[in-house]
């Protein structure tokens, strides 16, 4: 290991010791989150986040895919990858058939070394994804006019998705993980890359301040009307569909290719693992659970529903977003 890398790791180790910590009660201490500049992060992402903040330099042509975890990141990556590679591949030969969407589009906090190396070698620039909230994005991203796509999702389904995802990663049977505790901690802002409230309101505010730079996409709208949302997305990132492509059904074929039903049944997404250096990542199948709107109804009590509706109003009412 190079000595500068060693020094950096040592200083991060020192920094981590000073951060507030919280061990998720419903996972019996198996997961500890660290509060880094106001955001709760898993320990394994701190090097990546820190290194991205220090070294990543945005270019005007960059496109960033931003999201709070469990809001449809995997789906967005698949759609964007299919859009930008459609001249080369169709639904019969796209790399998405054999490669997990997270391996098609890198994440700032997970793959920073690979991203920096690619930049250094001037290799092809792909979109980059991140779960970082707006205020923690590397300064050069906020200062540049590169495009940002933010996907968000109804908080009730995000909580349910987060709950099952973490139980799955840590092999905790749901009978042993009280959902009320997940709900309670999440509402208090404690979740990976949370508070959810700050995450979503940060991007909503920035989208008003920087019109044309940030596109907000809602998971539920994409489910309801994928065609116009995929069209809007393609235009925004600079890959608009031609009238001829529309006639040929290219948009529909991208929607079908990237649908939950299709992706979740591919061998790579059923039994594969992401290829990330240094980090141990969840099995691919855990990123594909139900892919439905409204599963919260199977988990929430009336009391929880009332509480969260009040919180949505209180924390996000000012954003004008309808959740
Ligand atoms: P559920 O747990 O509700 O099923 P993320 O990718 O941000 O981690 O979000 C994961 C959520 O998106 C999971 O929700 C997952 O099932 C859903 N998802 C994954 N691929 C999808 C797709 N192609 N279409 C719709 N939803 C998808």
Automatic annotation (TrEMBL):
Belongs to the sulfotransferase 1 family. It is an enzyme of class 2 (transferase). This is Sulfotransferase. The keyword Lyase does not apply. Keywords: Transferase. Residues 60-320 form the Sulfotransferase domain. Its EC number is 2.8.2.-. One of its GO terms (molecular function) is sulfotransferase activity.
């Amino acid at each position: 290991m190079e000595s500068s890398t060693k020094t950096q790791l040592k200083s991060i180790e020192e920094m981590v010791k000073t951060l507030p910590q919280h061990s998720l009660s419903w996972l019996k201490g198996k997961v500890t989150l660290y509060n880094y500049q106001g955001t709760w992060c898993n320990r394994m992402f701190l090097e990546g986040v820190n290194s991205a903040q220090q070294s990543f330099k945005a270019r005007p042509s960059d496109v960033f895919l931003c999201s709070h975890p469990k809001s449809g990141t995997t789906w967005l990556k698949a759609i964007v990858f299919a859009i930008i590679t459609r001249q080369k591949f169709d639904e019969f030969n796209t790399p998405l058939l054999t490669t997990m969407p997270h391996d098609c589009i890198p994440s700032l906090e997970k793959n920073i070394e690979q991203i920096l190396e690619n930049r250094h070698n001037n290799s092809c620039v792909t979109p980059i994804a991140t779960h970082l909230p707006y205020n923690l994005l590397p300064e050069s991203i906020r200062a540049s006019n590169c495009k940002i796509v933010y996907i968000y999702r109804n908080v009730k389904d995000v909580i349910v998705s987060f709950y099952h995802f973490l139980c799955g990663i840590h092999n905790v049977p749901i009978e042993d993980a009280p959902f009320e505790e997940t709900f309670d901690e999440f509402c208090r802002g404690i979740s990976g890359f949370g508070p959810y409230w700050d995450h979503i309101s940060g991007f909503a505010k920035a989208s008003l301040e920087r019109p044309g730079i940030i596109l907000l996409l809602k998971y539920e709208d994409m489910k309801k009307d994928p065609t116009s949302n995929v069209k809007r997305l393609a235009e925004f990132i600079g890959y608009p569909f031609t009238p001829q492509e529309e006639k040929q059904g290219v948009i529909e074929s991208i929607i079908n290719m990237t649908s939950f039903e299709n992706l979740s049944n591919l061998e790579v997404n059923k039994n594969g693992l992401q290829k990330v250096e240094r980090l141990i990542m969840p099995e691919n199948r855990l990123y594909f659970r139900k892919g439905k709107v409204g599963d919260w109804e199977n988990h929430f009590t009336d009391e929880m529903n009332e509480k969260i509706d009040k919180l949505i109003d209180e924390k996000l009412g000012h954003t004008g977003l309808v959740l």
